[in-house]
Design a protein that fits this description.
- The chain has 456 residues and is α/β, with parallel strands linked by helices.
- The chain contains 17 helices and 17 strands.
- A nine-stranded mixed β-sheet has the order 9-8-5-10-1-11-14-4-15, with helices on both faces. Strands 2-3 form a two-stranded antiparallel ribbon.
- It starts with 10 loop residues before the first helix and ends with a helix.
């Protein structure tokens, strides 16, 4: 009997979960709905296997990238010129020419929208597909957070042993002592945390040992000390029987399995790639991070989040045009274009969805502080490629100043539902929060227009 109410368990469900636990059946299976089973079964001849979320942390300007307003007043259109793309009628700004030349391979959604103008809450919303529980300004990372997409996939549709469900690279998002929310398994627990790369793949010293558990467990150290840990665990049987003890053992085994998985370990051997290909991506943090993302796709990782830059790199309150033109956009344009070419040439584009977006957009009107743009959540853009997306289309239209959606708005919840459905997870599946209450994983609607070409 599927669970139908939103919060709480009735007596029948408590008994069902209790007997399921005795039989070794997971809570996810105990409360699975027919829709969950359908979403996890193969649909069609080919289902995408991976999603790469290219996250412009700090929030890139939609007006100065994929939704220019060349006919707006100067204080809105800014300093950049609009250029034609390969798609008739679609324009980008002049500093993403390589992506403009590949517009037939992706769709642009110009009406993403939500109501949270602060980085922390908006980041949580974008990276989990759900508003931050009890959200308040600058709320830090918490086990009350909603799970990131990789955690949801790992819980409901885990990949084979030795393959992590999610990897985040090349940096953990923190601002001084504040660690941003929405970056781990949240209430699902540490077992479902994505693996974290906290090192620059462009450095010669980069190695598989730079892959770490978010809670501070270094997989390289764990591997070297496995025999010692096993001896300690044998002597501490009582500890091993506690929840925390079992959790630590699970994390250790997860680390060892990952290190002994040839495909995943080889993904970090960046020097296996031809120099010409590495050059095409760009010999910088952006470029080599996306090349590593492609290698992780080949290794079978379902969810890869690539943070483009250190935290708040794209937070251009001042010097917006100078920073975008001189640093941020050229590297992003080159790296994403190379990724799309590489996936296409290797036959992986149908198997991989690529999403490029920030946590919100920037204000339509340029401020007086050195030509900057401030936070703006009511309207922003994202591009979606691969994974069955019909390229060469614009979905949604913003108003004349790119301030508000003029057509149907889409939320981060809808983006999350799209990610889950693409990866074979039913967005409406129910999971347990930290109080053991069943809650719905995601409440958005997949963006169907990406695949059908029909707006709505």
């Amino acid at each position: 009997m599927p669970h139908t109410h939103r919060i709480g368990l009735n007596r029948r469900e408590v008994l069902q979960v209790g007997y399921s636990a005795l039989l070794g059946v997971s809570m996810a299976n105990a409360l699975a709905t027919p829709a969950t089973a359908a979403a996890n079964s193969s649909r069609g001849k080919r289902r995408p296997k991976s999603v790469i979320l290219v996250f412009t942390t700090g929030a890139s300007s939609h007006i100065d990238t994929f939704d220019p307003k060349p006919n707006a007043p100067a204080e809105i259109r800014g300093e950049f010129k609009a250029i034609a793309t390969r798609t008739p009628g679609m324009q980008f700004t002049e500093h993403v020419p390589m992506l403009a030349n590949r517009s037939d391979r992706f769709a642009v959604v110009r009406t993403l929208s939500h109501k949270d103008d602060n980085h922390t809450g908006a980041t949580h919303h974008l990276l989990t597909g759900t508003k931050q529980p009890g959200g308040r300004f600058d709320k830090p990372l918490s086990r009350d957070d909603w799970p990131v997409y990789g955690a949801g996939v790992g819980f409901l549709s885990p990949p084979p042993a030795g393959i992590p469900a999610g990897v985040t690279l090349p940096t953990f998002l923190r601002d001084g002592p504040l660690v941003w929310p929405g970056q781990h398994g949240g209430f699902l627990g540490p077992k479902f945390d994505p693996w974290q790369v906290d090192s620059d793949p462009n450095q010669k010293s980069f190695r598989v040992g730079d892959l770490r558990l978010m809670d501070g467990l270094d997989v390289d150290t764990l591997s070297n000390r496995r025999s010692l840990l096993q001896e300690m665990n044998q002597k501490q049987v009582l500890l091993a029987e506690t929840v925390e003890g079992r959790r630590l053992n699970e994390q250790q085994e997860k680390a060892f399995a990952l290190l002994t998985s040839g495909a995943v370990a080889r993904a970090f051997e960046m020097d296996r790639e031809p120099d010409k290909l590495r050059d095409r991506y760009g010999r910088n943090l952006f470029g080599q991070s996306l090349l590593l993302a492609r290698r992780l796709v080949q290794a079978g990782v379902p969810m890869i989040q690539a943070n483009m830059g250190r935290v708040q790199n794209w937070d251009t309150h001042g010097g917006n045009f100078k920073r975008l033109k001189g640093d941020l956009l050229p590297a992003l344009d080159r790296a994403v274009a190379a990724l799309l070419d590489d996936l296409h040439d290797s036959g992986l584009l149908d198997d991989t969805m690529v999403i490029v977006t920030g946590e919100f957009g920037r204000t339509p009107k340029v401020n007086n502080q050195d030509g900057g743009r401030d936070h703006w959540a009511p309207c922003f853009s994202a591009i979606f490629a691969g994974g069955g997306v019909q390229g060469g289309q614009v979905i949604g239209k913003s108003d004349a100043s790119a301030a508000y959606p003029a057509t149907v708005p889409y939320t981060p919840d809808d983006l999350g539902a799209t990610v889950y459905e693409v990866l074979g997870v039913d967005p409406t599946a129910e999971v347990r929060d930290r109080l053991n209450r069943p809650v719905q994983l995601n409440r958005g609607e997949p963006i169907r227009a990406l695949f059908t070409g029909a707006i709505g």
